[in-house]
UniProtKB/TrEMBL annotation:
Protein name listed in UniProt: Protoheme IX farnesyltransferase
Membrane-spanning intervals of the chain: 21-41, 53-73, 94-115, 121-141, 148-165, 177-195, 222-239, 245-262, 274-293
Localization per Swiss-Prot or TrEMBL: Cell membrane
InterPro entries assigned: Protohaem_IX_farnesylTrfase (IPR006369), UbiA_prenyltransferase (IPR000537), UbiA_prenylTrfase_CS (IPR030470), UbiA_sf (IPR044878)
Cited Gene3D superfamilies: UbiA prenyltransferase
Gene Ontology molecular function terms on file: protoheme IX farnesyltransferase activity
Pathway: Porphyrin-containing compound metabolism; heme O biosynthesis; heme O from protoheme: step 1/1
E.C. number(s) listed in UniProt: 2.5.1.141
Originating species: Pseudoalteromonas piratica
Length: 298
């Protein structure tokens, strides 16, 4: 193979990677998992596997579309933070115009898939989540209030409800418990990272909780939310939606969460905050897998 072909291959691969970064693909994969579990826990509506898969693709495309808008709107902030200054829109490696077109294509395809393979309620609720994250959180709340993620986190918490509604066409009480789990998980997930990256947010003048209220207060909040999360996670068991296997998994995963949050507050080490952030991602993934396994495999 000539050097030119190799170089072309490498630059195509690099471009694809940039577009994946633009979509926040790892976040979207976890969001999609929570939507799959929402589908899996809903009463069996006898939908085909194709319909279910296309629904998840639709939700993932709208979440990715929202993430791209977030990169465009936030590029001024992203340029000022070490964690984000290499992002493709912030560096100019992908132009605003290209990013916007990409986002709108994903929006159109994702919405059509949801209307076609799920139902209108799912399509519009997912659109509501997109607006919640891309505009209400990113454009308004993030720059104004340290409670930004408590309120904005609602958008990220919606996928289990979206998955459920795609199966049933109605919003019953049970999927709201799953929404509550992700909603309660989001503040300790994000604030752990924000403690570690406080300087970044200070530099960019973003009013995140550690900047406005200090690190100690934020650590207390992380601990309190981790206890609240433990309690909320028991609710699916209490209403009979999930069984003993889920209860055990949830108690183990949340005990580790509370223990780590306790350590962060009362016996911190240099990397306690970032380790808690990374743990939070594994915790949510395993928790939702436990919900699914409990229903289908045990
Ligand atoms: C408003 C709500 C949320 C905020 C403010 C938030 C904030 C963040 C931030 C700042 C990062 C670091 C990203 C990076 O370095 O590129 C991150 C990573 C991550 N978040 Fe969240 N998050 C939220 C909700 C969620 C939700 C709902 C999920 C999934 C259900 C999620 C899953 C993840 C995952 C998987 C990562 C790791 C991504 C990677 O390694 O590239 N987050 N989050
Ligand atoms: C349609 C649908 C389900 C939408 C959900 C949208 C979505 C991708 C939610 C995840 C939230 C998230 C990654 C926040 C990051 O905060 P940030 O943007 O402040 O973080 P940053 O500093 O890393 O950009």
């Amino acid at each position: 193979m000539t050097t030119n072909v190799l170089q072309l291959q490498r630059s195509v691969r690099a471009k694809i990677h940039e577009y994946l970064v633009l979509c926040k693909h790892k976040v979207v994969m976890l969001l999609a998992l929570t939507a799959v579990v929402g589908q899996g826990l809903a009463p069996n509506a006898e939908r085909t596997l194709l319909e279910q898969m296309m629904t998840i693709v639709g939700i993932a495309l709208l979440a990715s579309s929202a993430a791209v808008i977030n990169h465009i709107v936030d590029s001024d902030i992203d340029k000022k933070m070490r964690r984000t200054d290499a992002r493709p829109v912030a560096t100019g490696s992908i132009s605003n115009g290209h990013a916007f077109t990409f986002s709108m294509i994903m929006l159109a395809v994702g919405f059509s898939l949801l209307a076609q393979f799920a139902n209108w309620l799912t399509a519009w609720l997912t659109m509501f989540a997109l607006v919640g994250y891309a505009f209400i959180y990113t454009l308004v709340l993030k720059r104004r209030t340290p409670q930004n993620i408590v309120i904005g986190g609602f958008a990220g918490a919606m996928p289990p409800l979206l998955g459920w509604v795609s199966e049933t066409g109605t919003m019953s009480a049970e999927p709201w418990l799953l929404v509550m789990i992700v909603f309660t998980w989001t503040p300790p997930h994000f604030w752990a990272l924000a403690i570690d990256r406080k300087k970044d947010y200070e530099n960019a003048k973003v009013p995140m909780l550690p900047v406005t209220h200090g690190i100690e207060f934020t650590k207390t909040m992380v601990l309190l939310y981790s206890v609240l999360l433990t309690l909320v996670c028991v609710l699916p068991f209490l209403i009979g939606m999930s069984g003993n296997a889920y209860l055990v998994a949830s108690l183990v995963l949340n005990s580790i969460f509370v223990y780590r949050a306790w350590q962060l507050k009362f016996a911190p080490k240099e990397k306690s905050a970032i380790k808690l952030f990374i743990y939070s991602i594994w915790q949510l993934m395993l928790l939702f897998m436990a919900l699914f396994i409990d229903k289908w495999l045990i």
